[in-house]
């Protein structure tokens, strides 16, 4: 049984770190949370400005598949703290949730601040100590965490540690990836941190970029090889981003890394098959302009019609050929937006460096959670779900390890 006097350190006060701290404190341990920023969970608060997407309501097996190829390593953690368990946990904090029309799950307050306030109050009631403006710098010769804070360098004596330092996206909010060289110097394998859920670059003409930058493409479908995703996207000055693009982030990135480009096809009318669309185009009035035909018969918005013309300067006049182009507009993506502009991070500490309890094999007593680990997932609630779940799983692993000592 874990000794009540045991002291554990949690490095990082994002969702994964706070989730670990809650489990550890509830088990009776003394918990100190270390955060380098002036306040905790800054990325969570920013993510909640447009509606805090906590998790997703789709069937669990389909949900878990979103984490491929890391699905197997996250499976047990997410099953132990499932999307429904996360909703129940929110309810326990006085923050009930609802399922949106897309299947995504949000708190009724629709933002992060009420949930975070209630959570921090619970942690305070459990005796968790939060230290801000303090950076983890590694370990001393005895394996204790070393810190750099406003009072200078120091060593934190702890019986075990959870590292939940995040990835490298949105560095101004705290997750800057500065932990990578520390772990690599210790011989711990780290896969290169790369942008995930980020935009990609395309070579727009100046006229198209000037006119349509910031314009949405609604109710479209994206095709990349065998992958198809329906959703929305946004044209940027130098490329494209948005939910449907993020869902294909990994295969797009891998294609660019392997071949220097990714050739996608956009279906601008996925609700119509090619034959039905061709019939509509054939029924257009003879004297109607091409712009009018695209708007009325094809039902294309100005950004969609602009994208069609960007892909083919001379549009086909034959209805079937034009319908075929509308159903498969080629889009060549040649680069990634920088990781600082990404929503999340791919890469991180290789799962081979961890045991099944999320403990570093090379550093017994040190457990990892959240985006530090080598997994990625699309937006839609999957990022937060895995962060919460892995934080709790790392805490459970730590408790088991202490109990064996």
From TrEMBL:
The keyword Acyltransferase does not apply. Its cofactor is FAD. The keyword Manganese does not apply. Keywords: FAD, Flavoprotein. Residues 194-344 form the RsdA/BaiN/AoA(So)-like insert domain. It holds the Pfam family HI0933_like. Residues 7-396 form the RsdA/BaiN/AoA(So)-like Rossmann fold-like domain. This is TIGR03862 family flavoprotein. It comes from Methylobacterium terricola.
């Amino acid at each position: 049984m874990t000794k009540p006097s045991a002291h554990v350190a949690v490095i990082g006060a994002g969702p994964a770190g706070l989730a670990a701290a809650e489990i550890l404190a509830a088990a009776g341990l003394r918990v100190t949370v270390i955060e380098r920023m002036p306040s905790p969970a800054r990325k969570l608060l920013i993510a909640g400005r447009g509606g805090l997407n906590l998790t997703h309501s789709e069937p669990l097996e389909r949900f878990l598949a979103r984490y491929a190829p890391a699905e197997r390593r996250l499976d047990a953690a997410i099953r132990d703290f499932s999307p429904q368990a996360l909703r129940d946990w929110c309810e326990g904090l006085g923050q009930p949730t609802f399922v949106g029309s897309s299947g995504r799950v949000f708190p009724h307050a629709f933002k992060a601040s009420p949930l975070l306030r209630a959570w921090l109050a619970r942690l305070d009631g459990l005796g968790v100590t939060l230290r801000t403006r303090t950076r983890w710098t590694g370990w001393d010769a005895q394996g204790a965490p070393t810190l750099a804070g406003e009072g200078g360098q120091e060593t934190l004596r702890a019986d075990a540690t959870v590292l939940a330092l995040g990835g490298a996206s949105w560095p101004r909010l705290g997750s800057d990836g500065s932990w990578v060289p520390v772990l690599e110097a210790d011989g711990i394998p780290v896969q290169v941190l790369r942008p995930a859920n980020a935009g990609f670059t395309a070579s727009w003409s100046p006229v198209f970029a000037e006119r349509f930058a910031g314009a949405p493409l609604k109710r479209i479908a994206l095709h990349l090889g065998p992958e198809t995703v329906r959703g929305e996207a946004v044209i940027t000055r130098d490329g494209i981003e948005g939910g449907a693009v993020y869902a294909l982030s990994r295969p797009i990135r891998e294609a660019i890394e392997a071949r220097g480009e990714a050739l996608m096809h956009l279906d601008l009318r996925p609700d119509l098959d090619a034959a039905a669309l061709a019939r509509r185009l054939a029924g257009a009035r003879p004297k109607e302009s091409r712009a009018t035909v695209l708007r009325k018969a094809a039902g294309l918005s100005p950004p969609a019609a602009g994208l069609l013309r960007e892909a083919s300067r001379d549009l086909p006049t034959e209805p079937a050929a034009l319908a075929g182009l509308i159903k498969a507009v080629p889009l060549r993506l040649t680069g990634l937006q920088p990781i600082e502009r990404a929503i999340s991070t791919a890469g991180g500490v290789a799962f081979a460096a961890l045991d099944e309890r999320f403990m570093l094999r090379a550093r017994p007593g040190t457990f990892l959670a959240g985006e530090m680990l080598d997994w990625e997932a699309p937006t839609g609630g999957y990022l937060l779900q895995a962060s919460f779940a892995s934080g709790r799983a790392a805490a459970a692993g730590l408790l088991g390890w202490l109990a064996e000592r």
